[in-house]
Amino acid sequence: MPYIKLIDINRYEIVNSWALDGIDGVFLKASEANLVDKVFPSYWRALKNTNKVRGTYNYFRPMFDLYTQVFIYAAVARNTPLPPVADVELYNAYSDDVTFYTTASQVKIRATIKAYLDMLEEQFGRTPIVYTSAGFWNKYVGNVDWAKNYKLWVANYDVVRPQIPLGWTEWLFWQYTSHGSVAGITGDVDMDYFSGTLQELKLLANVEPTVPPPPPPPMPRKAIRILVDQLRIRTAPSTTVGKILGYLPKDHDIDYIEDYKTGADVWYRIGYNQWCAGIYNGYRYVEVVL
After folding, report:
1. Residue 36 dihedral angles phi and psi, to the nearest 5°
2. Is-contact 174 195, C-beta < 8 A?
3. Do residues 184 and 272 both lie within one domain?
4. Which residue, 153, 113, 109, 104, is CA-closest to 131?
5. Do 89 and 8 belong to one domain?
6. Cα–Cα–Cα angle for 253, 258, 264, nearest 5°?
7. Is the predicted pLDDT of residue 215 greater than 90, yes or no?
8. Which residues, listed in sequence order, are joined to residue 244 by a DSSP beta bridge?
């Protein structure tokens, strides 16, 4: 029996048509660290108008505040039909992640990932799926007894069958190539298999959360609240030289490190090379909360 096919996409894939013939499900990248993927709001709206099974994922950054990562993900994707997905891998261009995984003890690495997974389950009311590869997981995490409590989305390209990371015995999703071609999408596409029938995939997408999401934590002492639907996060306090990194959702509270005033404009630094406009051209984008 042929596998059910899905794709997973983010801001690097340009979708010209959502017909996506031959594809039964789509995972969208919702967020990374404290940023919403910049195409997620528009892609998610478009995807809702299709008959595709819908899922989302969060790219985990171990050096960022865990709760902020989970809260941002849940704020934009709590009602995702498929269970939430924790994308746990290492991208060598992220030097802070490389430092964490290569210098932290295995005990700390395991504890950090498990704490993140626990927070995801608390926020979504569903057990998350773990996306990873055997090469990464076996080297940095190893064989943990709690891995079996999570369904596995394994990445292993151009092989007859995927290598299963330590702690698991089977996969639920398999990302089998990063160079797929799908009509309606410009460029290479990550392609995935589901280890069941289409009916089983749809059933997985219709499981009600077991618990309601917990209330938000107390407001931080030095924070801003987003007043607009999508607040752009830039690399600098400027609309001309600051490259857009992503977005933050409305009504979210986030810590800021410092403010920067230039004329009547006010900017807030919320992370390393991460700035958002507080007041710009007379328009207020955020408010300070104490």
Report:
1. -85, 135
2. yes
3. no
4. 153
5. yes
6. 95
7. no
8. 234
Domain enclosing residue 246, as ranges? 223-289
CA distance 155 to 27: 14
Q: At CA 180, angle to CA 178 and CA 185, rounded to 5?
A: 110
Kindly state whether residues 229 and 87 are assigned to the same domain: no
With respect to residue 209, please indicate whether it lies within any of the assigned structural domains. no
Cβ contacts of 160 within 8 Å, gap of 6 or more: none
For residues 69 and 192, state if they share a domain.
yes
pLDDT bucket at 32, cuts 50 / 70 / 90: very high
The fraction of the chain above a pLDDT of 70, given in percent, is: 95
d(CA 147, CA 167): 5
For residue 197, what are its two tokens? 């029938």
Q: How many CB atoms lie within 10 A of CB 17?
A: 11
Which segment of 72-86, 87-101, 243-257, 275-289 scores lowest on mean pLDDT? 243-257
Given a contact cutoff of 8 angstroms between Cβ atoms, the answer to whether 164 and 171 are in contact is yes
Shared domain for 194 and 246, answered yes or no, is no
Residue 289 pairs in a beta bridge with: 223
Domain final residue, candidates 173, 204, 235: 204
* Spatial distance between the Cα atoms of 165 and 115, rounded to a whole number of angstroms: 20
The label of the residue with tokens 């490389």 reads: 98
Please indicate, yes or no, whether residues 159 and 253 belong to a single structural domain of this protein: no
Looking at the chain, how many residues does it have?
290
* C-beta of residue 142 within 8 angstroms of C-beta of residue 165: no
pLDDT tens per residue across span 156-180: 999 999 999 999 999 999 999 999 9
Helix (H/G/I), strand (E/B), else coil: 20: coil
Report the CATH number that the domain containing residue 23 is assigned in CATH. Answer: 3.20.20.80
Q: Report residue 239 CA to chain centroid gap.
A: 25
Domain count across the chain: 2
Q: What are phi and psi of 149, to 5 degrees?
A: -80, -5
